[in-house]
Amino acid sequence: MPIDALERLGRNFWLKVFALALAVAAWAYLRLTPNPIIAARFVQQFSVPITTTGLSSDRLASFTEKQAVVSVIVPRGGAPIRPDEIRAVLDLEGRAPGVYNVPIQVIAPKLDIKSLSPASVTLSIESVEERSLRVGFHYVGDAHRGVVVSRVAVDPAVATLRGPSSDLARVSNVRIDVVLPPLPKALDAMQRPIATDERGNEVPNVVISPDLVRVRADFVSAQIKS
What we know:
RNA Polymerase Alpha Subunit, Chain A, domain 2; five-stranded mixed beta sheet; 16% helix; elongated
């Protein structure tokens, strides 16, 4: 190397070393320090109800998981996020009765989703069916020796039941509970019929139409006048 080139290199040598060290330090800072844009964000969790879509009216989906926890990356100082901006949806379009594991789809426009729990839901799909049964009577309360039922009627006399096939198959009766009075009286009231199994227990998930029926009964004295 020519002597003049070495002389030029030697001029301000320590200044050049300091400049090089400063450049290395600046590179290391930009390379290793977290991005301030990323650091200015935080994660917020929302618990939202799990809903279904695409299920036909003659099908019913049953599943135990009712809420999904959605984690959203939120910019600090940004507009607050409302829970109703986030939806957790199970797409059941075209599914026949059976058991499925269906992924949850998060619908949250313009939001950065970090995580979702659970990611999927195991559910069963059943057919919704209808059947008709006559409305019967079930007398409840203490029996009073001095009072008997002389007449009892319900309008309408037949009720329509609608529900999942498995629950509907358990129904053996539709009944009205009639309370026995301590004294003779006339009853004229609107009451709710219930669907029961063979043991008399109410069967859930069965809708009865109409939900109220008119019950008329006469409770009279058991003594027979001569």
